[in-house]
Design brief:
single chain; 50 residues; mainly alpha; 2 helices
Length: 50
Amino acid sequence: GNFIQPLVAAINCSLWVYYGLFKKERDIPLAAANAPGIVFGLVTAITALI
């Protein structure tokens, strides 16, 4: 399958988690909501390559 879309989704979630944790006032719910997307995106991208 195509691995690009889930890989880009994982990168997008990584950026949102970084933003939520490192902005002046931390946004833990934002980071927590996007953290699973990193794992799921990477697993899906790897699965698409196999």
